[in-house]
Known about the structure:
The structure holds two protein chains of two kinds.
Chain A: E1 7-11, H1 16-27, E2 33-36, H2 44-49, E3 58-61, E4 64-67, H3 69-79, H4 93-119, H5 123-148, H6 161-167, H7 170-180, H8 191-202, H9 213-227
Parallel strand pairs in A: 1-2
Antiparallel strand pairs in A: 1-3, 3-4
Chain B: E1 2-3, E2 6-12, H1 17-29, E3 34-37, H2 45-50, E4 59-62, E5 65-68, H3 70-80, H4 93-119, H5 123-148, H6 161-167, H7 170-180, H8 191-201, H9 204-209, H10 213-234
Parallel strand pairs in B: 2-3
Antiparallel strand pairs in B: 1-2, 2-4, 4-5
Helix pairs in contact in B: 1-3, 1-6, 4-5, 4-6, 7-10
Amino acid sequence: MAREGDLKLLGLVVSPFVVRVRMALSMKGVSYEYIEQDVFNKSELLIRYNPVHKKVPVLIHHGKPICESLAIVEYVDEVWGGGAPPSILPADPYERATARFWATYVDDKLFPAWIGVMKAATEEEKAEKVSQTLAVLLHLEEAFAKCSNGKAFFGGDSVGYLDLALGCNLFWFETLREMFDVELIDEGRTPLLASWAQRFGEAAAVKDLVPNVDKAVEHAKKMRRVFVH
Amino acid sequence: MAEGGEEVRLIGSWASPYVVRVQIALRLKGISYEFVEEDLKNKSELLLKSNPVHKKVPVLIHNGKPVCESSVIVQYIDEAFAGTGPALLPADPYERAVARFWAAFIEDTLLKASSQASSGKTEEEKTEGKEKVAAAIVTLEGGLRECSKGKPFFGGESAGYVDVILGGLLGWVRAIDTMQGVKTFDPSTTPLLAAWAERFGQLEQVEAAMPDGKRLIEYAYARAMQAAAAAASTN
């Protein structure tokens, strides 16, 4: 394990964006001090290091903050690049562009849709958001077919940038199944994503970083109390 | 247009700030390209095939392969043509992360607020949008200070990634300023941005990529009238 003296991560156990960054750090074998944040009662530290958004994750390296999960993942890939640790982004510019396109799609389209399911005030709204989520997942199914080229992951033989971008959301799909009995990644509708999700969950680098569904359910209930009227 | 075996085509529409971003990036790097004007009311087979997910412009087609999403395209241009022209992203990983942060801010905070300001469902929502835009611009002034470190551009001595991402919007900013009699980048509250806008707008590569000011204003008025007519007919 590479010893990194001055590396801290401000996070939230149930945030998929934080989980994404932790997975990237784990892939690089980098150790860091993890500081759990209370997003309902923001700390001095969080406000100081992410004054613009006051959100997690924030990576603090040698006292300098890096914010925005995808920017952090690219930073981690570049700083701990070369040599033994696997590369997170592909080397080829066109493949990098494809990975970035789909990662942006996950954050811009998938995330708001499933969050909408979690926060829905009525059954109607929930059904609409489920529908939206399923439509987005169909596009991601096609993306998997193209990107993986018959291999196990979006990144090929091993976990890569897009696997992290999408994979960090999976524990929330299980949470939503638990809370609302909705099946988002379904073998019938999206078979490639279903088998990928299984493999991703078992991948060494990401295995122990996925929080318990119970924690996510607890957080969701708190969010609903605060945001749903 | 082929140049040393490279074929670069850009599918775009003249008014789109996202397309302008890509044109600025290509011109800053000195890459020649064929511009394919798209009629967004009657989308071509080429566009639908090249961007099946969003069906939007810009799409860069490099040696037959499409790249979509303006910020992804600009980074692609920087990487695929690494040997050509100046680098758009900084070399240092920390500075790159800072640049990516501000580019994300422009998309996710500034432009989202701008969209609410113009297309909000109620007057209240629109007003809130305008306030968010004003706040975002003040924050962006801080971003410019952080990135430029006293130099002329977000990219430092020369224009870079964040300059391009923000700069694509300049045509529309000028149009709105003229139409509404305002100063989006107010020199009294955001002096760095105001000076940056002047300076960036005068770069020859940027001037060549910007939509014609008058034409943009006419287009904006026409769109506003269409929207008003549509709203009136549903009342």
